[in-house]
């Protein structure tokens, strides 16, 4: 069992949850003003933040639920901060406006990890299973990596005073060093690619690899916002060398400005056999592949039983205070009206219901999170 511990949640706990008002004195360090207002701009109606990994799932689920909401994604950390109004200054940026710094903007947040330090009036609802996969081009002949070697490559070997890898000593540089059993180009440097720090995927990856910081050679992909799409953090401001936004010339470019960061990482991996990138299962693209870890494939059985090292639960978490009516429409559809359909949407996007949908005794959201 990893440090996340074991968390068992059922649909019953979701239905019975009653949100309570925020005590601004007791929780001032993590919770902003209790009155929330969803994000509304010239191009966005009732927007809410959360996991980028789940962007395609939640976008489709919102559409099917009939809720008048717009899912903005951008990362689980932003979703959590917007539940609590606790975003670091200047806040969560969207279309040139900063949100969630001292003001609660939403009461639901799809997340690819649990809440940090959950408050008494918050609720965590596990809704499915996922895994962090290590992606590369499908032509790469390496097919199995040890999780310790993955940790060495991304976070280095030096431990800080807290006993965590701190990214200061990074001796694993070549494919021959991470895949001694063989690879397409053993003498080539590994092109390491990761999600940004707002990502719940990054939080889980760091925890499972005992990592406090990444090696400096790891390239970071973030959400650049509408009109830009995913971008490397070292791209010039307002541009993306991945989508071509703000760049001279016609391309070709690897991704569309409408792709999620997870989609982009999948396409980056599909473009180059030297790339090794981590992302959720929704990064599956034509031309890429997910590597085995410690000899175990990321598939339904190994992810559900936790034998795949980077398996994890997916969540729709709730904050304190009253929901917006449109949030209630969405939550009622997920947890009361059509829970199985929501699980089907998860599986349509390469994730898994917590238990087999074909099992005659299947109960929605019967999740055990290891």
UniProtKB/TrEMBL annotation:
<dbReference type="Pfam" id="PF12849">
    <property type="entry name" value="PBP_like_2"/>
</dbReference>
<feature type="signal peptide">
    <location>
        <begin position="1"/>
        <end position="21"/>
    </location>
</feature>
<protein>
    <recommendedName>
        <fullName>PBP domain-containing protein</fullName>
    </recommendedName>
</protein>
<dbReference type="InterPro" id="IPR024370">
    <property type="entry name" value="PBP_domain"/>
</dbReference>
<keyword id="KW-0732">Signal</keyword>
<dbReference type="InterPro" id="IPR050811">
    <property type="entry name" value="Phosphate_ABC_transporter"/>
</dbReference>
<feature type="domain" description="PBP">
    <location>
        <begin position="34"/>
        <end position="315"/>
    </location>
</feature>
């Amino acid at each position: 069992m990893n440090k996340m511990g074991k968390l068992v949640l059922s649909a019953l706990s979701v239905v019975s949850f009653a949100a309570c008002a925020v005590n601004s004195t007791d929780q001032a360090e993590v919770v902003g003003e209790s009155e929330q207002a969803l994000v509304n701009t010239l191009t966005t109606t009732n927007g809410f933040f959360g996991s980028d990994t789940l962007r395609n799932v939640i976008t489709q689920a919102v559409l099917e639920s009939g809720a008048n909401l717009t899912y903005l994604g951008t990362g689980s950390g932003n979703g959590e901060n917007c539940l609590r109004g606790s975003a670091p200054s200047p806040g969560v940026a969207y279309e040139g406006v900063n949100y969630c710094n001292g003001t609660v903007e939403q009461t639901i947040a799809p997340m690819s990890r649990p809440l940090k330090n959950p408050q008494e009036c918050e609720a965590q609802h596990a809704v499915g299973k996922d895994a962090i996969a290590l992606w590369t081009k499908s032509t790469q002949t390496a097919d199995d990596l040890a999780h310790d070697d993955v940790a060495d490559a991304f976070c280095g070997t030096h431990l800080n005073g807290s006993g965590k890898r701190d990214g200061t000593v990074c001796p694993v540089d070549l494919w021959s060093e991470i895949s001694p059993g063989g690879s397409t180009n053993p003498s080539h440097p590994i092109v390491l690619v990761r999600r940004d720090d707002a990502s719940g995927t990054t939080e889980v990856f760091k925890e499972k690899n005992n990592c406090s910081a990444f090696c400096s050679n790891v390239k970071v992909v973030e959400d650049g916002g509408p009109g830009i799409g995913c971008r490397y953090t070292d791209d010039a401001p307002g541009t993306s060398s991945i989508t071509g936004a703000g760049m001279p010339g016609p391309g070709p470019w690897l991704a569309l400005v409408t792709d999620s960061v997870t989609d982009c990482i999948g396409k980056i991996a599909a473009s180059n056999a030297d790339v090794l990138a981590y992302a959720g299962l929704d990064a599956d693209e034509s031309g890429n592949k997910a590597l085995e870890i410690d000899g175990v494939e990321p598939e339904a059985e190994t992810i559900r039983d936790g034998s795949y090292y980077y398996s994890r639960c997916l969540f729709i978490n709730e904050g304190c205070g009253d929901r917006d009516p449109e949030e209630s429409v969405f939550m009622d559809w997920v947890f009361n009206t059509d829970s199985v359909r929501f699980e089907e949407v998860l599986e349509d996007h390469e994730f898994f219901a917590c238990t087999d949908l074909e099992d005659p005794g299947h109960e929605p959201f019967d999740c055990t999170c290891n």
